[in-house]
Structure formats: structure tokens, C-alpha cells
Design a protein that fits this description.
The protein is α+β, with helices and mostly antiparallel strands and about 240 residues long. It is about 45% helix and about 15% strand.
Length: about 240
């Protein structure tokens, strides 16, 4: 359950590095032994193909929506908090600029890229920030803000939204019951621009249940990565 793998540019960089190391190892064999060059070349291709699959298998890209009033705390003074998170979880973490809110919401978007387990940990940390950040005095609708603290927003490719809804909402109901959630709801088409390629899922309930449900969604997205993938765009 605690897995997610959505392809990212960093995966391509990692694969290139693996291919280089494999080629270097192969060339060292040629230099030290009398080995048929064609056989060595074929073995190098087989090795890099296997290692490339492993590299892709460990990388992840996730997008989350967060309340605008949480962004200051998440980023920190001079970017201190987000830099610490990036270092702690060995991940690329970026937040959309002020005013670049996810369509149909007033929320900023957080992009997290890295190895699978690190991204999961960073997602959970972001959930913690949303739930623990003190609501600013200037927020007029405090009841709504308090309610927002209790749910998470995960962004998915629009083309895969049906996978989390199901016929008559059957899949959404099943996930809600499986993880004992209060809410599992896919953003309606009417809230996003025509042709827009992303939608969001709202997940609410007990904190650990929400985190487990988010991990489940990310794993489902991984299994469908051949059909659709999230890009790294933060300009909404």
C-alpha cells in the first residue's frame, strides 16, 4: 500500500547515470579479459534495460493542493522549511507562486519528486503541515478553515478520474469504506476548465486513514502510468 511510482524527469537522469556505470563496468571487462566484443555489447544492453526498469520503478511525482494560508509556513522564512524538507526527504519540493491556484479552488499546489518512499514521507509531512498550521487571524470563515485542515487534496490526471469514481460512484464508495474515511470525492467536471488535464480528489477522515488512502491512490496511479502521467507544471 505504501508505494507510488509516477514517472519523472529525475528518473530519466537516474537511468542515464545507471547506463553510464553499466557501460563503464563492461568496458573494464573488455580491457582486462579476452571477451568477444559483440557478446559484451549484448550483455551491456540487457543489463541497462533491467537497471532502467528498476530506476523507473523507484521514482515518483505527486501534486497536492494546500490552503493558501499554509504556504507561508510550509515554505518558511527564506525558504528554510521547504529546504529542510527537500534535504530530509531527498526530494524536489516546489510550491506554485501566489495566485497560481488549482482550478476551481483557492489553493496552492505542491509538487514533490523523488524516490518512492521519500515522496510518501514528504506527502505525509505536508499533510502534517496542513493539519497543524495555526489558522491566521485574518481568515474570516474560521469554521471552513478548520474543516479544510481535516482533509487532503491529491491531484490526478483527468483521464484517470473514472478509475476512482466507478459506475454510480461504486469505486469511491468502496475506497471510503475500505479506509474508514469521512469523504472520498473526485472534483466535478464543472469546476475545471474545458480541456484541462488534471482534477483533484478530496480525502478526509482520521489522519492515518487519510495518509493510507492517499498512498493507495498513488499506487493506483502508478499502475496506470502508461496511460497518463502528471507533468511538473505549476502555472495554473
Amino acid at each position: 500500500m505504501w508505494k507510488s511510482m509516477i514517472s519523472s524527469p529525475r528518473a530519466s537522469t537516474l537511468v542515464s547515470a545507471i547506463r553510464l556505470r553499466s557501460l563503464q563496468r563492461t568496458l573494464s571487462v573488455v580491457a582486462s579479459e579476452e571477451v568477444e566484443p559483440q557478446i559484451v555489447a549484448n550483455e551491456a544492453v540487457e543489463i541497462t534495460e533491467v537497471e532502467s526498469e528498476i530506476a523507473d520503478d523507484t521514482m515518483s511525482r505527486v501534486k497536492m493542493g494546500i490552503p493558501f494560508w499554509v504556504t507561508k509556513t510550509l515554505i518558511g522564512v527564506g525558504g528554510a522549511n521547504i529546504k529542510q524538507m527537500s534535504s530530509e526527504f531527498n526530494s524536489l519540493i516546489k510550491v506554485s507562486k501566489y495566485g497560481n491556484n488549482f482550478p476551481g479552488t483557492s489553493e496552492a499546489v505542491v509538487l514533490i519528486e523523488g524516490e518512492r518512499d521519500d515522496v510518501i514521507a514528504a506527502v505525509n509531512k505536508t499533510v502534517d503541515f496542513v493539519r497543524s498550521t495555526e489558522i491566521p487571524e485574518g481568515i474570516k470563515d474560521r469554521e471552513r478553515a478548520e474543516k479544510r485542515q481535516k482533509y487532503s487534496r491529491l491531484i490526478i490526471p483527468s483521464s484517470l478520474s473514472g478509475k476512482f469514481i466507478g459506475k454510480g460512484g461504486a469505486v469511491a464508495t468502496k475506497i471510503r469504506e475500505q479506509f474508514e474515511l469521512e469523504t472520498f470525492s473526485v472534483q466535478g467536471r464543472e469546476y475545471i476548465p474545458e480541456g484541462f488535464e488534471e482534477r483533484s480528489i478530496i480525502i478526509s477522515g482520521e489522519e492515518e486513514n487519510v495518509k493510507e488512502a492517499m498512498a493507495h491512490v498513488m499506487e493506483e496511479l502508478r499502475s496506470q502510468s502508461g496511460r497518463a502521467q502528471l507533468d511538473d507544471n505549476l502555472n495554473y
